[in-house]
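Feature request, filed as a ticket because there's no other form

It would be nice if the structure record came with a short human-readable summary line next to the tokens. Right now we just get the raw output. Example of a typical job, pasted below so the devs can see what we mean:
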Amino acid sequence: MRLAAIVLALLPPLARAEAPPPAAPAAPAASAARLDFRDLLRATRAGLVPTERALALAGQRVTLAGFMADMEEPPSGGYWLVSRPVHCDEGGAGTGDLPPDAIWVVVRGRAGFQVEHVGGLISATGVLEVGPEADEDGQVSAFRLLVESTPPAAPHPSPQPSHQSKERK
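Raw output as currently delivered:
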């Protein structure tokens, strides 16, 4: 009983404790949420579908780190951002070698122009779009990131692609 009396004696001071300090102010509109490739898709019986996090971030600025897919025939107007280095051979499946969570990065002002490949890990920040959509060339993407500029050159050499071109000598 003595223990119960001590506990009861301590409860009123805890109940009167000061309120926690107010939360930090909301981040400015220009900031971007961090997004990882594992946050994009989840497996269901019907197949892969966007995660709740990806859907919640649709239409918002996000930052994603990954690798620019090395395409044998580079597309125009943007590039594919993937979770690991990859080389896509157009003689085979073209974009069929891309993982399902690949993001089509649309670079403002580069429509009709190829974006030079950048090796190594890069970061892209822009507005996330979720859901299948075809571009003017008929290329369909499940995720798009609308960015203002191309990524800077990587400071370190790029890891080897996971799929090598068949034209190796």
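Something like this underneath would help us a lot:
The first helix runs from residue 2 to 15.
The mean pLDDT is 75.
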